[in-house]
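Re: the request from the purification team.
They wanted to know what the chain is likely to look like in 3D before they choose a buffer screen. I agreed to run a prediction and write the result into the notebook, where they can find it.
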Amino acid sequence: MNEQQAVPRHVAAIQRISAAVYAQRRAIVLAILGVIAAGVIASGIHVIHNGQRGVLRRFGRVTNGSVAPGVSYIIPVAERLDVMDTGAVNTVAFGESLALISGDENLVNVTGQVQYRVDDPGRFTTAASQPEDLIRSVAEEVLTREVSWRRVDDILTTDRSALQESIRRGEQSAADRAGVGVTIIDVALNVVSPPPEARSSFAAVSDAASEREKKINEAQGKAAQSLSLASAEADEKRRSAEASATEQTESARSAAASFTALAAEARKARPAARQRLYRKAVTQLLQSARVVILPGDGSREHLRLDLNGGNVNPIPLPSPSATEPQPQPKPEP
């Protein structure tokens, strides 16, 4: 009797496991299929957060273009759910590969970006296969048209805002016609410059234009300041003239009132009025007069009386001159 060759332990273990698996082959297959099915079923659960909207497709056709935030379930394989941020601002660049010709036949480089917001995800994903390419092409078309009739100096200096607004309006109009469901928020021009070989010349022109604007502003400021000073001086003179006119008017009214009162008094008592006027005239006449009072006792001093209220000052008389006759003593009898 031949001795059987000994079987290694690991080989024996593998044989036992294989026999057990083979015996339970149906149960194992069913378990694997169950796991796969559970995974497929679980893959249909989707969560849409706040600020997002979902686009539900069934066999490639959109059945719901605005799925609200929350937990949604789709049928695996048959349906597809695309989630988009409706409140986010997206950016599309344009103009990188363009060489534009201005209205005065100069080359100019203009690049920028369009900022937009998706309002209707369903229309955004179905209206065009590549919505951002549509936004870019419209921006470049409007930019080319606007640059073609403008002077290059205006494009580089004063027309930047006008270009941006024209592109924004053109973009929104094209988006509305195409029905892509977006709102154009803003258009910003990043680079507006001449070709490299002409930049120095354009820089000199730009500096000259800036210097001209600076001088114009300075002249306008000085003119405004001079006008303000002249206006203030005119107001001051007018107020002074008005005050003087008011004073003269009041003085004239007072004189008229005094004259009227005097006339009324003269009509009532003519002698008394005549005497009053006489005294007034004499008083006015003697306001600047001086009165010299000579004493009657033969002294050589006199008094000067100031009628304006001054003091009475004694003034010595001058000594008699040598030519005057001297009194002779009488001879004794």
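For the purification team: The helical segments are 9-23, 25-42, 121-126, 131-148, 152-156, 160-178, 199-268, 270-285.
Please add any questions underneath this entry.
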